[in-house]
Amino acid sequence: MSKKINLFVVDDEAGFRKLMVKVIPRTKYHLEVFSNGSEVLKAIEKKEFDVGLVDIKMPDMDGVELLKRLRTQNILTEFVVLTGQASVATAIESMKLGCYDYLTKPTRLDELEAVIQKAYEKKVIKKENIILKEELQIKDKYYEMIGKSSKMESVFSLIDKVAKTSSPVLIIGESGTGKELVAKAIHKNSNRRDKPFIVIDCASLSENLLENELFGHEKGAFTDASSMKRGLFEIADRGTLFIDEIGEMKLTTQAKLLRAIETHQFRRLGGIKQIRVDVRIITATNRNLVEDARNGNFRKDLYYRLNVVTINLPPLRERKEDISLLVKHFMANSQVTTTKKKVGQEFMKILMEYDWPGNVRELANVVERALIISVSEYITPADLPIDFCRLPAGYSYPSDKMGLSKLLKDFERDAIIKALRECKGNKIETARSLRLSRSKLYRKLKEYRIM
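^ that's the sequence the OP posted. Answer follows.
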């Protein structure tokens, strides 16, 4: 069902207002009528209108004056001017004020509705463009991070604050939540943005190799050291060093890291010269460093040095209102297909019910897979990985008070979805596997709103 258009009419003639209430279809419009401009100005403060029909000739405040006042407000409403006295000068003045169109009374209802519809469509496009622009600004500022949930707004706010300083930042979050993106956003919004942003992952390196990567070595420091190598601390000078999975770092390396952070100096492996650097340190982990410090697996003094500002990244299951935004982002930026796809309601419902242990990274992979597998205009549950066949977290078995008919329908619907997945969306194969005729399968798909 299409959305009703929020419409207002302002005209000082009571007869015309009554006529509009009578002829404007309630199935298509939420209509409000006003007798003067002052009433419109009060109403516009409390409600957003899509389209306004404005009479030019009115006492106290005429239509042109009303339009001038409305245009000073930050509203997206499109206006159509109505008058019983056609005037080229008035029409030009109205159009200069941004009116969508200009009609003379009397006018046919079908003509009026056509103009209202077009004005409404322009308003919708204008609003979508503003939202898109805002999203692009957020993506640009926060390095592809997407979200409008309150938890992500708090993260963005903290990024803005810490970016202005050079203090260490500790980012805590589960795997796949986007910790590196937060680090990049802090760097990009800081006064170090034009300097290096260097990343090192502690989990992927042995203790000796990690130390070598961080601090470098002198020629002859060990058997294979045939030349001097600068470490990442040197390379990141005046920039940002992002140390990922800091909780995996061994205690001996932690001690050297702490000294480098506190003194802004270090020595290459095998060297005697102290090298001074100016590096902003950002670290990240999915571990509980407080617990690790208590158990002796992480230095308390290093934890306190790193934990000047902590940014806790929420898992995707705690910000599910961002899922639709993320899906749109992944689809718009995907390179796996040139065909424009749409998201089916059932597909989105399943995404919203899932708990996402792999967080945003898992969602991105699921969307990419669906785009590759999908054979129709819409992405459907059949395009989901087989893992999604399992019951969602928090699922409870139906109560025995539930009617048998409802239980059977739920079972039938789930069976059809499972068969569609296994047949990769091929409806002929799905019908054959379920021993249904194609026409009956299509009726069932429509009945259960499986796109």
